[in-house]
Design a protein that fits this description.
Layout: E1 3-10, H1 14-25, E2 30-34, H2 47-52, H3 54-73, H4 88-112, E3 116-119, E4 121-128, E5 131-138, E6 141-152, E7 156-158, E8 171-172, H5 174-177, E9 186-190, H6 194-205, E10 209-213, H7 225-238, E11 241-243, E12 247-253, E13 258-263, E14 269-274, E15 276-279, E16 283-285, H8 292-295, E17 318-320, H9 331-345, E18 359-361, E19 366-371, H10 374-380, E20 384-390, H11 395-400, E21 406-412, E22 418-425, H12 428-440, H13 445-450, H14 459-468
Parallel strand pairs: 1-2, 1-6, 2-3, 6-17, 8-15, 9-10, 9-15, 10-11
Antiparallel strand pairs: 4-5, 5-6, 7-16, 12-13, 13-14, 18-19, 19-22, 20-21, 21-22
Helix pairs in contact: 1-9, 3-4, 3-6
This protein binds flavin-adenine dinucleotide (FAD) and 1,4-dihydronicotinamide adenine dinucleotide (NAI).
1,4-dihydronicotinamide adenine dinucleotide (NAI) binds near residues 198 and 280.
EC number: 1.8.1.4
InterPro entries: Class-I_Pyr_Nuc-Dis_Oxidored, FAD/NAD-bd_sf, FAD/NAD-binding_dom, FAD/NAD-linked_Rdtase_dimer_sf, Lipoamide_DH, Pyr_nuc-diS_OxRdtase, Pyr_nucl-diS_OxRdtase_dimer, Pyr_OxRdtase_I_AS
GO molecular function: dihydrolipoyl dehydrogenase (NADH) activity; flavin adenine dinucleotide binding
Length: about 475
């Protein structure tokens, strides 16, 4: 007899494991099928985010930033530290132990919430309104389970360049790029998106000469133009070589390195010789082998499971969340969709606001935004007013030495409602939440301007930016 569950989640990344936990909290008999295998062939929970995404990248970003800071960031404080040495093995081991702690933490949460972890790869075998039969395959062995509700949370994988095999030794996607055993002398990166900038920064700080090749003519087109322009200047000063408007013609792997033949923005043929190459050109959804055709699950031409605004698929009682569906490929978006779906299954009426999902790029300084960019407002014909304030004259920023960047607030010209907030600063990731909260509560720039902000804090810059909308900043 196969096991029967109320809810079966396929995939245990941030979308899937959170959905499983919330479903279990709501009293459902819940299972989660997870097919992730690490190089040691052990099944692991946590998905991309915990194993080869958010968590290991942030660990390396923090370690590499400390290394750079100790070398170059302490002199202005009157501290001289000589002989800083890099032990990359130890740095990588620290990262691995954080990943291990986090993935084991989910195992603990599964046990605590009595969630059954079904080890293996899940696929629909049959089903409809009355329930579904899912097949779980692990090392050639198959078992079947029954589910009243199914939540698909199978995530995404790195997109590769056509005809350029990724061996994760010389040509790497995120998996290999997080695991270098030595610092490459010369590192090439294709794609100046989030991964390219974050991992490019890690290896630059540790000593690599990094060249990032970007196809689009504009740098960071998704960000507000003023932020992108300022960030490009700061990154150039740090020594991160970014070329936009390029076209990759050929990638050749040699015994000792990789050669990228490309055409630059002036139409000239160029060659980039590097020891290693990171390909970070976006991600594609994991729907292969899921049995979509067997049960008639609608998947679009790019492989995304089709869902409505509440993550319902075309099949009764089947939902899909996270990277495998439309919307930003972000862990917090996946998590919130997980909660949303579990609560819908429980008969609640939850709501998720897709307009207030923050984006954060963990470079130094960090880039964070929520809502619309000024160029987006222009394109939509929305009349707006903007206010901007720099960190360079903020007492707290001066105290810590983290003075680069600014806050920009965009408000509807007619109603003063905040429609976007954009921050470039070392602590932009935390500061942006004020913008998220304001927008969620449909707040106005004037609300931010009239709220008491602690002193001395970086958040005072957010308030000053709100005051700047009416040219009444107090400290400039
Ligand atoms: P995933 O995390 O991809 O998990 C899907 C899981 O499903 C996997 O474990 C997979 O093994 C499993 N699976 C797939 N198919 C099957 C199947 N048929 N049967 C069983 N199991 C299956 N986002 C942020 O918000 N902040 C960050 O700082 C951040 N940093 C990132 C850094 C990098 C280098 C990368 C690559 C991504 C980063 N992301 C970040 C994005 C984030 O990792 C994803 O948005 C998030 O992991 C999506 O969660 P998910 O649950 O939808 O899918
Ligand atoms: P991305 O979509 O952020 O950036 C890809 C970049 O590659 C784009 O600028 C694109 O124009 C460029 N590109 C595409 N094809 C190209 C080509 N042939 N040649 C040169 N350039 C090309 O994708 P990335 O960096 O791979 O990250 C994937 C996703 O993972 C992100 O979009 C994000 O959703 C998530 N992520 C989130 C992080 C965070 O929240 N801090 C960190 C890392 C990843």
């Amino acid at each position: 007899m196969s096991q029967a569950f109320d809810v079966v989640v396929i995939g245990a990344g941030p979308g899937g494991y959170i959905a499983a936990i919330r479903a279990a909290q709501l009293g459902f008999k819940t299972a989660c099928i997870e097919g992730w295998k690490n190089p040691k062939q052990q099944l692991k929970l946590g998905g991309t985010c915990l194993n080869v995404g958010c968590i290991p990248s942030k660990a390396l970003l923090a370690s590499s930033e400390s290394y750079e800071h100790v070398q170059h960031g302490l002199e202005e404080h009157g501290i001289t530290v000589g002989g800083a040495k890099l032990d990359l093995g130890k740095m990588q081991a620290r990262k691995d132990s954080i990943v291990d702690k986090m993935t084991k933490g989910i195992e603990f949460l599964f046990k605590k919430n009595k969630i059954t972890w079904l080890h293996g790869f899940g696929a629909f075998a049959s089903g409809g309104e009355g329930g579904y039969t899912l097949e779980v395959t692990n090392d050639g062995k198959k078992e079947t389970v029954q589910a009243k509700y199914v939540i698909i949370a199978t995530g995404s994988k790195a997109r590769h360049l056509p005809n350029v095999p990724v061996d994760n030794v010389q040509v790497c996607d995120n998996e290999g790029a997080l695991a270098f055993g030595t610092v490459p002398k010369k590192l090439g990166v294709i794609g100046a998106g989030v991964i390219g900038l974050e991992l490019g920064s890690v290896w630059r700080r540790l000593g690599a000469e990094v060249t990032v090749l970007e196809a689009l003519p504009a740098f960071l087109g998704a960000a507000d133009e003023s932020i992108a322009k300022e960030a490009a200047k700061v990154f150039a000063k740090q020594g991160l070589g970014i070329q936009t408007g390029i076209k990759v013609d050929k990638v050749t792997t040699r015994k000792t390195g990789v050669v990228v033949d490309y055409t630059n923005d002036k139409g000239l043929a160029q060659k980039l010789e590097c020891d290693k190459l990171i390909v970070s050109i976006g991600r594609i959804p994991n729907t292969d082998g899921l049995g979509a055709v067997t049960v008639g699950l609608k998947v679009d031409a790019r492989g995304f499971v089709e869902v409505d605004g509440h993550c319902r698929t075309n099949l009764p009682n089947v939902f899909a969340i996270g990277d495998v569906v439309r919307g930003p490929m972000l862990a917090h978006k996946a998590e919130d969709e997980g909660v949303l779906v579990a609560e819908i299954i429980a008969g609640q009426k939850p709501h998720m606001d897709y307009d207030t999902i923050p984006w954060i790029i963990y470079t130094s300084p960090e880039i964070a935004w929520v809502g619309k960019t000024e160029q987006q407002c222009k394109a939509e014909g929305l009349a707006v007013r903007t206010g901007q304030f720099p960190f360079s004259i903020n007492g707290r920023a001066l105290g810590t030495g983290q003075t680069a960047g600014f806050v920009k607030i965009i408000a509807d010209a007619a109603t003063d409602r905040v429609v976007g907030m954009h921050i470039l600063h070392a602590h932009a990731s935390d500061l942006i939440q004020e913008g998220v909260t304001t927008m969620e509560f449909k707040g106005a720039a004037e609300d931010i301007a009239r709220i008491v902000h602690g002193h001395p804090t970086l958040s005072e810059v957010v308030r000053e930016a709100a005051l700047a909308l009416d040219k009444r900043s107090l400290n400039s």
